[in-house]
Design a protein that fits this description.
The complex is a heterodimer of chains A (657) and B (363). Chain A is mainly alpha-helical. Chain A has helices spanning 2-38, 53-68, 73-97, 111-125, 128-143, 147-177, 179-194, 201-208, 212-236, 240-248, 253-286, 295-304, 308-338, 344-369, 371-374, 381-400, 402-426, 429-462, 465-495, 497-512, 519-526, 530-554, 558-566, 571-582, 584-604, 612-622, 627-656. Chain A is 83% helix and 0% strand. Chain B starts with 12 loop residues before the first helix and ends in a 7-residue tail after the last helix. The chains are: A mainly alpha (657), B alpha/beta (363).
Chain lengths: 657, 363
């Protein structure tokens, strides 16, 4: 019997290998033929101001929640309490550093105190280099004339990080210790991380209203998963022998945790804190959509009025803050490792820390007492210079690069985007749905097919089928471009250590940026179109895809490449016949990540004229009668995300098997 | 040098009669089954009879340890040997309940460990057993001396006292001067010395070794084996030693238990395994062992025939063949094997040569 099974397996795999691309091609051909015949029928288009029954019902839900907010026990004793606690926390932190408090015209701690404390903390947890960076970065906010906005963003970020860590680290430890908890939690965390930042906002405003408190709650929900995941991972990666050794010596569970697991996972947990902070900053800036104060709001207002200069100035502040926070926490993670090699410095560290603390306290006192230390001096001339510089540069580019950028834009829009979008939006909905289900089933197996069928059904149910297809078209085009960039640069990096060394730091830096800021330069180059969102999405998603593909190429065993070289392959043959096929798993994973990243950016593009689902969500926040439609659009984004994720994940599992 | 009544290089007193005195550990009908219906397997006569593969197909269970019985005497070095997957590491973890056994008894100093509650088990682990692990299991964030003191710290010993004790142990295992290093600054062999010191620091009654030297280079492995023999002489602890290396087993073990697929195949002294292998599996295993190094005269002597000259030199029955070779070959007459004044048999040139020259010779 075993022999029979052995004989049939290769035949089956050969048949599958030959047929899968052919089946995909056949599906596409059938689609094109039917599209030609049935074009324009049953496309389920819905005008921008039109509503379906679902949207009206969601509006009613919103209204009734609004009316019963203070009488429904669930709200009275649960949601409102949460909101109250978070609101108090946010108000408290804001009164410390960003908002006038206690009848004072300025916050409790002025700029000098904040800069002093930031420098001191950065030095204490990291090193003097990041401390200098932090001081310079924070001073720069003041020079830009964005001190208060920056401090609002910082206050929200810090509050959210505090809450996220308070929840995330204990949960992570729990998931690290218990297999069952881990099993229950993983799908939730997967789901939460798949979703574009955007979609958390709408349903939460339903419960928590808009403003700083809901911004922090949203941010906590978005930023806690990395903390949970990384803490659990850290606890789990403590070598089993070490745990067993402590057990064999008779350690109690508490001793095991405090003396073995936590100390050994400290470094990784600090890296989790870094991830949490970066995620929080990204979300806090996007939460400007639900009226969160801070830099995000400045950028968003400037974006919607197409004021590139102001958007650039505030976007730059976000970038600087991201760099400062990332560098400081990375240095803190490195420090937990290098701690013991310090030597003489170790002896002086304590007194120096004490002196630094006193100095920081003096600065805080000064900034609390004197106006010159409380309000940032000057009127932010650097900021106006930056803004006008950016405006000049934009004008210059629009004047001089007009031909180039327009040609690029028109080529891609007319050559790739428009035909594809027409194909998606002008086909009957059932045809596109059938194609999606069939592709899901062929690429990812029957399970993925079922998921695709459910998602298609629900998408139709949201009443936003046509908008979803427009977003799908932009996402698909952007993903293709992302994968092109990913393969070119990924293979290059994977093959050359030099290129890797040059590119990787840039890619790492690009990944910590909040997605928001990518829109600014492309808005300057391409104006308010779908194309801007697509290019911003490609730039946002490419670093992830490049890194995954580079690692995949690098992981191809040296001996295989050597064998191919000795067989006389040239470089092109090695890449196409050895390295890329063997990195197939990485390619699918890169597609998966690329799709998710691109999707979150393409919907953000709703802010700069990309229309479709992203616009529906944004409009939902600003116009009461469109609220339900915005909520449904958020749901549609979730459905698209789930569908992409499930199909590509299943495909990735298949290619690996 | 006339090797009359030569002492064997290693004291064999415990091995000669392992059953004198009460055993420290006695294991009876021990089972460990992994899988969905693990509890049902040891009780069911039918399931017990299946091979590992059949059991897997029938129930989805893996029997890692199947009906193992043995006793370990005080001061003995008891070696459990088997290839990977034979269940030896599971067995040693069952003994201290790092893995919970499925069925059977583990009696330690008169107490069935399986009945101990969590608190009692912790007490036993803190004071009676310690274990040395293949991959050391050291704490990278603690210095050597703090690693060694870890078990004492867990017990709640005061800092001064445990540091003193830890330093003594660090010196005992030859790591003096390295007490303030961190584990990752030490070589593999030295890291395992730290593991050894950590196990010894608590002054346990029994030391368990789970393939402690498998991850080390051959030369360092030999050093560490000698170190264990030395420590055994100095501190006289009972040791249960797991290994997959037959030469290590023969070098260290007073008695050796050979496991295969979770079952015990044979249990006996090294010369018993080589001289009288229980089945083809063991025979195959010991095939390449230099027989002259392991077998004693007892195994190769023949009964005295009437025409044998009985005025040759005398040797004891437990003299290893290699050590007797020169004496036997030099003697004009066959050597008499005598124990307590009683003639057991004689050994001539032919018997010696069949072992020393014809390693493959039929056993």
């Amino acid at each position: 019997m075993a022999a029979v099974a052995d004989a049939t397996v290769p035949v089956a795999t050969i048949r599958r290998k030959v047929s899968r691309p052919m089946v995909v091609a056949a599906i596409l051909v059938v689609w094109l033929v039917l599209f030609a015949a049935l074009r324009g029928r049953q496309t389920l288009t819905l005008a921008a101001a039109d509503l379906t029954a679902l949207h009206r019902w969601l509006n009613d839900v919103n209204d009734s929640i609004g009316a019963n907010r203070n009488s429904n026990p669930l709200f009275l004793y649960f949601f409102n309490e949460i909101r109250l606690v978070i609101d108090n926390l946010v108000t408290f932190v804001q009164s410390l550093i960003s908002q006038p408090a206690d009848g004072r015209p300025v916050p409790q701690i002025g700029w000098l105190g904040v800069v002093g404390v930031t420098g001191y903390v950065s030095w204490a947890v990291g090193n003097w280099r990041v401390a200098l960076l932090a001081v310079a970065g924070f001073t720069f906010f003041g020079l830009q004339g964005l001190w208060q906005e920056s401090m609002d963003t910082l206050a929200l970020t810090l509050s959210a990080v505090l809450v996220a860590l308070l929840i995330g680290i204990p949960l992570g430890v729990w998931a690290g210790l218990s297999d069952r908890v881990n099993r229950i939690m993983t799908p939730f965390l997967d789901f939460m991380q798949t979703m574009p930042t955007f979609v958390y906002l709408a349903p939460l405003t339903l419960i928590f209203l808009i403003g700083g408190a809901s911004a922090v709650i949203t941010t906590v929900i978005y930023a806690a998963p990395p903390a949970i995941r990384i803490t659990a991972h850290a606890i789990r990666s403590v070598p089993e022998t070490t745990v067993e050794a402590a057990d064999s010596l008779g350690a109690t569970r508490m001793q095991q945790l405090v003396k073995v697991l936590l100390p050994m996972s400290k470094r990784t947990v600090v890296m989790g804190v870094n991830q949490t902070i970066m995620a929080a900053l990204a979300m806090v800036t996007i939460a400007a959509l639900i009226d969160a104060p801070g830099l995000g709001k400045t950028v968003m207002q400037a974006l919607t009025s197409l004021d590139v200069g102001t958007a650039f100035n505030a976007g730059l502040a976000i970038v600087v803050m991201a760099i400062v926070l990332d560098r400081v926490t990375t240095a803190a993670a490195a420090r937990t490792e290098a701690r013991r090699t310090d030597g003489w410095f170790l002896k002086w560290r304590r007194p120096l820390l004490g002196a630094g603390g006193v100095a920081a306290a003096v600065l805080v006192y000064l900034s609390h007492t004197y106006v010159w230390a409380a309000e940032f001096p000057g009127d932010g001339t650097v900021g106006s210079h930056l803004a006008s510089g950016a405006d000049t540069a934009t004008t210059w580019m629009q004047d001089h690069l007009f031909g180039l950028t327009n040609a690029l834009r028109d080529a891609l829009t007319n050559g790739l985007l428009n035909p594809f979008q027409t194909l998606l939006t002008d086909s009957p909905w059932w045809l596109v749905g059938a194609v999606l289900v069939a592709l899901g089933a062929v690429l990812g197996g029957w399970r993925a097919g079922v998921t695709a069928a459910v998602c298609v059904g629900l998408l139709v149910g949201t009443g936003l089928w046509s908008d979803s297809m427009t977003t799908l078209a932009s996402t698909a085009v952007a993903t293709v471009l992302t994968m092109l960039a990913g393969v070119v640069f990924g293979v290059w990096m994977g093959r050359s250590a030099l290129v890797d060394g040059l590119l990787r730091p840039t890619l790492d830096a690009a990944q910590v940026m909040p997605p928001f800021v990518y829109l600014v330069p492309f808005l300057a180059l391409f104006g308010a179109t779908r194309f801007t969102a697509i290019i911003a999405g490609v730039v946002y998603a490419a670093p992830v895809a490049i890194k995954i593909i580079a690692d995949g190429v690098r992981n191809v065993p040296e001996s295989t490449v050597e064998a191919a070289t000795s067989a006389g392959c040239n470089t092109w043959q090695i890449i196409t016949k050895v390295q890329l096929p063997m990195a197939r798993g990485a390619l699918t994973l890169a597609t998966n990540q690329g799709l998710i990243y691109v999707l979150s950016m393409v919907v953000l593009g709703g802010l700069v004229g990309a229309g479709a689902l992203g616009y529906d969500v944004v409009a939902g926040f600003s116009q009461g009668e469109l609220y339900g439609k915005g909520l449904a659009a958020g749901l549609a984004i979730v459905l698209l995300g789930v569908m992409f994720d499930r199909i590509t994940q299943a495909a990735a599992r298949r290619t690996r098997a | 040098m006339t090797p009359a009544q030569t002492e064997v290089s290693r004291p064999r007193d415990t091995s000669e009669d392992p059953r004198d005195g009460t055993p420290v550990i006695s294991v009876r009908r021990l089972w460990k089954v992994f899988g969905p219906k693990a509890d049902e397997v040891p009780g069911s006569e039918e399931l017990c009879g299946l091979t590992r593969r059949e059991l897997m197909d029938r129930t989805g269970c893996t029997a890692a340890v199947r009906d193992v019985n043995f006793e370990v005497s005080p001061g003995e070095v008891f070696v459990v040997m088997g290839l990977s997957g034979s269940g030896k590491s599971t067995l040693v973890r069952c003994l201290t309940r790092l893995i919970e056994p499925t069925a059977g008894e583990i009696v330690f100093e008169g107490e069935d460990i399986r009945d101990a509650d969590a608190r009692r088990l912790r007490e036993l682990r803190r004071s009676k057993f310690s274990m040395v692990f293949q991959h050391f299991g050291l704490l990278p964030h603690r210095k050597v001396v703090d690693n060694v003191a870890f078990g004492l710290e867990i017990r709640g010993m005061s800092k001064a006292e445990r540091m003193k004790r830890a330093m003594e142990t660090v010196e005992l295992v030859g790591l003096a001067g390295y007490e303030n290093s961190y584990p990752d600054q030490l070589s593999g062999g030295m890291q395992q010395r730290v593991g050894l010191a950590r196990a010894l620091a608590g002054d346990p009654d029994v030391l368990f070794f789970d393939e402690p030297f498998s991850a080390l280079d051959p030369l360092i492995r030999r050093d560490m084996q000698s170190e264990v023999i030395r420590l055994h002489h100095e501190v006289g602890k009972t040791m249960v030693f797991i290994t997959h290396d037959l030469s290590e087993a023969l070098k260290l073990g007073d008695r050796i238990l050979i496991m295969r697929d979770g079952k015990m195949v044979q249990c006996g002294t090294g010369d018993e395994l080589v001289g009288a292998p229980a089945d083809d599996y063991v025979r195959d295993f010991v095939k390449d062992v230099p027989r002259g190094d392991v077998l004693t005269l007892r195994w190769i002597m023949r009964p005295a025939e009437p025409d044998d000259a009985l005025d040759g030199p005398e040797l004891g029955p437990d003299v290893v063949v290699r050590e007797a070779t020169r004496a036997v070959l030099a003697a004009e007459k066959p050597v008499k094997v005598v124990e307590n004044g009683k003639l057991l048999g004689i050994v001539g040139d032919e018997e010696i040569l069949s072992v020393v020259a014809g390693q493959e010779g039929g056993a």
